[in-house]
Amino acid sequence: MTEEYESDVMSVSYLKERNTLCLVWKGSEIAKDTDYKTLLMHTSELIRKHECDSVIVDGNMPEHLCDNDVRWGRKILVPALEAAGLHKIVFVGGIRGFDSLKLNDRFVCLDAANLDEAKAEIPKVFKPSPEILQMSREEAVSYLGLKDDANDFAIDEKFWQLSKRYRGDDTPESEQKLADVSCAYDIACGRRDEVRKETQINASRRKFLGKNASEWKTYFSYTWLRWLIIAIAAVCAFLLVKQIFFTKAYDCSVVSFGHFDYDNTNMTASLTAEGYTKPYVTSVDIVVPNDQNQSSNAYADQTFAAVMSSSPDMIVTDDQTYGYYFSYLADMSTVYDDLKDYLPKDVYDSLKPVYMSERDSVELSNSYIEDNVINKDIEDASDYSDTPVMVGLEITDPDMIKKLGYTNLWPDSAPSVVIGMYCDTTDVATCEKVMIAVLGDAI
Asked: DSSP state, 345?
């Protein structure tokens, strides 16, 4: 990964001696999205790569951000920085226009008069030298001044002697030497290899909500009191959810999931005008696949599972996302034929049928697993049907998409939405009625 990024608006560089990033704004105005959004997402990746917990923001920063920048910053950038491990931001010259992102709610934000003062807020970090990190156990033992057959006791004694020698001297040379000796000790005593082995084992274990069984056990042992409180809250939430979902507090449901901003005002108005008094219209921002430097919300999958429990009458997604959720989509061919009798001709003609087979879906999932998941078996796609199924109706007209309330967030893809029907729906007539009400007003 590149350590420095540059555009007409800003630059990003990695300061190795303090293990931090420096973002320099070159002008008071923010230009095109690609001039700063891509670089800021690269910043989150560098934070994760180097395990930084701080950044410095310097230069002639903008006085204010437009609404689109604020919305993108709150929904995409800030969660990405937080998930990467960012803890502290030092602003040279004050936070200025970035106060609209409410960074103080997520991070420690400090002011500095100049770059040197900002660096002083971040202590120097000494990491082991690259040649030490690559050592074998035998090389590490030799580096500590011991023979190849040295036992654990001898290694511990030697490390204690060396660390005592270098810890008493605060010079940069001694600090670096202490970091190298500590790394060599981890290798010599086998700790590094144990961590690597455990990491590989954990990566291959079945995970639930991002953690395997061992990780959940450790997590709960330290957070049982918090989870007791959460459990009580969950019971209350369950009673509320039961009241909302199982007593049918809504009379129709539309669930959107994909990488877009969504305003449900027009869609809700269309359904209300159709006679629905309590329409349930919601959206989840899901980034799958993440191949355009976009960041996914850490709780997107859980939120998606929750909203899908409403058994939606209509599903809305986008052309980048629908293939990964093939199993949630029903055959739309009959509905498509019926819509012709009720929708205006220009609206009906703008709907492009989208086809996919079970085999296509499995092959797509296998490709994603191969690129993103370690030690996970893939399915044999030849076991599945290759018969195409009409899984949705795609809309690419920007005006219609905007009227429906969607703003595409994929930076390298043209705007699109895909209208579909939930696979477990039991009321196709209501699905058709909801689609007719929504699409009929999208002109």
From this structure: H
Q: pTM of the entire structure?
A: 0.45
In a 10 Å sphere around its CB, with 0-12 CB exposed, 13-18 middle and 19+ buried, how is residue 407 labelled? Answer: middle
Q: 141-150, pLDDT tens digit by residue?
A: 888 888 888 8
Closest CA to 443 of 411, 414, 408, 401: 401
Indicate the DSSP class of residue 393: E
Q: Which residues, including other chains, have CB under 8 Å from residue 284's CB and lie 6 or more apart?
A: 255, 256, 257, 300, 303, 304, 307
- Which structural domains are found in the chain, ordered by start? 4-120 (3.30.750), 130-194 (1.10.287), 251-440 (3.40.190)
Question: Residue 204, Cβ neighbours under 10 Å: how many?
Answer: 13
Give the span between the Cα atoms of 314 and 146, in whole angstroms.
Answer: 70
Convert the pLDDT of each residue in 343-396 to its tens digit. Answer: 989 999 999 999 999 998 888 888 877 766 555 567 788 888 889 999 999 999
Cα–Cα distance list, 16 to 44, 156, 403 (Å): 16, 30, 48
